[in-house]
Amino acid sequence: MNGSNGSQEHHVSGEEEVHHVSRPILNNGPKHRPLTPMRQCRGVACVAVILSTAFLLIVYLAPITTFVVRLFSVHYSRKATSFLFGMWLSLWPFLFEKINKTKVVFSGENVIPKRRVLIFANHRTEVDWMYLWDLALRKGHLGYIKYILKSSLMKLPIFSWAFHIFEFIPVERKWEIDEAIIQNKLSKFKNPRDPIWLAVFPEGTDYTEKKCIKSQEYASEHGLPKLEHVLLPKTKGFICCLQQLRSSLDAVYDVTIAYKHRLPDFLDNVYGVDPSEVHIHIRTIQLSDIPTSEDEITEWMIERFRQKDQLLSDFFAKGHFPDEGTEGDLSTPKCLANVFVIVGLTGICLYLTLFSSVWFKIYVVASCAYLSFVTYYSVLPPQLVGSPEGGVKAKKAV
What we know:
The protein has one domain (37-397). Helix content is 50%, strand content 11%. It has 13 helices and 7 strands. The chain has a 7-stranded mixed β-sheet with strand order 1-7-6-2-5-3-4, sandwiched between helices. The chain is globular. Mean pLDDT is 89; it is low at 12-26 and 390-398.
């Protein structure tokens, strides 16, 4: 999911002071824990369980929530799909925090849970987006989180079904194409009754030393601040999302992510060898504090990333963000109860498929055909009974 806004470049030149820039700092020390055969087997087993539960639950339940329910109500279709998605997705924070013992430290503001949120974050590594799940889970909105992702990911078997029915936004990384795609997707989320947590990574790609040097060269040429720990943001994607959702948003969260003591990749997460700690700093931004013109939003976003750069610089010097401890640990009993429910449902689906009536096998085949069709043509059934906006209009009339 890196490069969510890779095509959406929009910088402005200015007269800002050019700071002296040292060599970019990458906290890529030795792995926090050794990769033992036990850890490797445990990680493979956990991912096998997570992926098998995903496949069976999608095949059995997605046609009900995204077809049958959607014919009567888009709102309740999304609600049911997000509820089930959230239950399954919470297996990942359980893996990270409870099984792998990765410490997730929240700081900044203790944000009040909101229904409709736009999140923008720095992009340290390929797995940053996974740790936003830990925040959304604590706020009770895990099933509503959505990402802008590379369209090539829509070619992955099974995963593409999930990305589509959860209404993620695939982009080509060419702004002349992506602008219409984002506008079209988000135009379907104008109903304020539909919760949405939309996550955007304005840097457009994950951080590397080579990319940082290139970003600094661009900054030097255009009179922009040279940043050491983040890349200059590309703002067109963020601006488009903000313009489409602004009238119905409850909040904008500015999230800064850092790791101790090494930047993890996906397999590090799976095996639990890294990271030792994930630090997530959150600031709430009032919509009234965000400018309205594109040029002013661009300047505002560059300033936010200058502040992120300073936050990360202080983090590497002190080992923590300011105002730590804004969120508690996950409840182990609740996590275990959720695991048992998901595994139990998967077991039932597996039994019905292998040992029950032939009609369940036919249902599985028909479900796979349905999911393949709607994903390939990028469509979802329309609401046929009533109007998707009818409830909202009636509510306003009252």
